[in-house]
Amino acid sequence: DTGVSQNPRHKITKRGQNVTFRCDPISEHNRLYWYRQTLGQGPEFLTYFQNEAQLEKSRLLSDRFSAERPKGSFSTLEIQRTEQGDSAMYLCASSSPGGLTYFGAGTRLSVL
Amino acid sequence: AQSVSQHNHHVILSEAASLELGCNYSYGGTVNLFWYVQYPGQHLQLLLKYFSGDPLVKGIKGFEAEFIKSKFSFNLRKPSVQWSDTAEYFCAVNAGGATNKLIFGTGTLLAVQP
Predict the structure, then answer these.
(1) pLDDT in tens for each of the 114 residues of chain B?
(2) In Å, how far is B15's CA from the nearest CA of chain A?
(3) Pick from B44, B54, B20, B55: which is nearest to B92 by CA?
(4) Which residue among A19, A67, B64, B68 has the highest number of C-beta atoms inside a 10 angstrom radius?
(5) Do B100 and A95 touch (CB under 8 A)?
(6) Are the beta carbons of A111 and A64 closer than 8 angstroms?
């Protein structure tokens, strides 16, 4: 499968714990996005990377959230001191310049 | 700020019925418009897109959408739905710029009864 890959698919954690998600984009795509989707809502943009540079962050991305793309390939999204309100599906997507955006299957986070 | 409205949150149809899902966006400039579909347990997939040209665009699985600039609308249609079309449908807009990020509507959950 050469699509966008996300791990893990599901994560259950206790409030206050840190979690990290990984995204492997389509290999030739230099643009990578993180979105969050909660029940009954469409995906909401969180942050954008072009190669290794994080060029835009949504105001939804609080200080507890950090994303990296160290070598311009895979990306990680870390949430520190998780809260119940962080429970959501976290989606990764990638594209090439001017190209279409392809989504991964997402990581579903449940904070107990 | 850009926004996308999908007015139908839940739609229930019988097989062979016609489908139209509404989508309106707010943005005064040039936009790219998309419909994505999410089948149960699967990832978001692109159904169709409009960038420019013919405002009636055809996508996969017999879906089509019409861009009406004066109404800021991009409604999705299918003449005859099948049980396998049961899914959640999302309209999205991309106003370009540096990030190419997508702004999504809240989605429409379609249930097709056999």
Answers:
(1) 789 999 889 999 999 999 999 999 998 778 899 999 999 888 999 999 999 899 999 999 999 999 999 999 999 999 999 999 999 999 999 876 777 899 999 999 999 998
(2) 25
(3) B44
(4) A67
(5) yes
(6) no
| Nearest in space to B100 (alpha carbons), one of A84, A109, A29 | A29
Residues 6+ apart with CB under 8 A from B1: none
C-beta separation of A26 from A99 below 8 A: no
Instruction: State how far the Cα of A29 lies from the Cα of A46, in Å rounded to an integer.
Output: 18
List of E strands, A9-43: 10-13, 19-24, 31-37
Q: Which residue has the tokens 């995204």?
A: A23
Write out residues 21-60 of B within 8 Å (CB-CB) of A. 36, 42-46, 49
Search chain B and give the residue with CA nearest A50. B99
List the Cα angle B62/B47/A72 in 5-degree steps. 155
